[in-house]
Design brief:
single chain, 236 residues, alpha/beta, seven-stranded parallel beta sheet
């Protein structure tokens, strides 16, 4: 009897950390469904992933700020592969401005994406994870433990995400669902419109976060690393 192929659902998976996680998992024989607000970006990223392992990647247009959009994406994954074993709630935005000048729309987009978006992802995927006794992983930030100047919106979203994830872990572990939050420091991505160059080599790389995800989902069933802080070994 052939071994069941596991499936991962990754929000914001067309670039950055999300893509790094997707590439790592697909190289280990796990099917990956990646979402992006841009259908074109999702399709392009899925094509690159399918070049690594044909038929193992699915690109979906979805907005984490919309529960119906999240549910539609999940339904498509279930139609395609029939299961979701791992969820990596990665989609996020970063806006920084002093409290005196931050715009209401900027605040709302940050909270709706980084915090409410994860809540919607959980609501859409928990029934499937319950069936597979799967794993729900959030990508938070060290900004979820350390406050920053001009970081009112971002800090609020990430402090909230860490608390949300830890409380969710207590709610669902009795159902066999594991929950972990990963809190990276500086990562070499296009986050906040950054252009990655050779000068970012000292930073955590997206595939490094992918390796962390791959390691924790293979932990013994009796063991749960509920919160992981990760930072560059040697900052610039």
């Amino acid at each position: 009897m052939s071994e069941t192929i596991k499936t991962a659902f990754i929000t914001g998976g067309s670039k950055g950390i999300g893509y790094g996680v997707a590439e790592t998992l697909i190289r280990q024989g796990i099917q990956v469904a990646i979402t992006s607000r841009s259908g074109a970006n999702a399709a392009e990223a899925a094509a690159k992933l399918n070049a690594i392992r044909q038929g193992y990647a699915l690109g979906l247009e979805a907005d984490v700020r919309d529960l119906a959009s999240q549910q539609q994406a999940v339904d498509k994954v279930l139609q395609q592969w029939g299961r979701i074993d791992y969820v990596i709630a990665n989609a996020g935005v970063g806006h920084f401005a002093p409290i005196q000048t931050i715009a209401i729309d900027t605040w709302k987009e940050t909270i709706d994406t980084n915090l409410t978006g994860v809540f919607y992802t959980a609501k859409a995927t928990l029934p499937s994870l319950g069936q597979s006794q799967g794993y729900f992983i959030t990508i938070a930030s060290l900004a979820g433990a350390n406050f920053l100047p001009e970081g009112t919106a971002y800090n609020a979203s990430k402090f909230g995400l860490v608390g949300f994830t830890q409380a969710m872990m207590l709610d669902v572990r009795k159902e066999g669902i594991k929950v972990t939050t990963i809190m990276p420091g500086s990562v070499a991505t296009q986050f906040n419109d950054h252009t990655v160059t050779a000068q970012d080599a000292w930073k955590i790389q997206p595939e490094d976060i992918g390796q962390i995800v791959a390691d924790i989902i293979r932990m013994p069933a009796r063991t749960l690393p509920s919160k992981i802080e990760v930072r560059p070994a040697l900052p610039a």
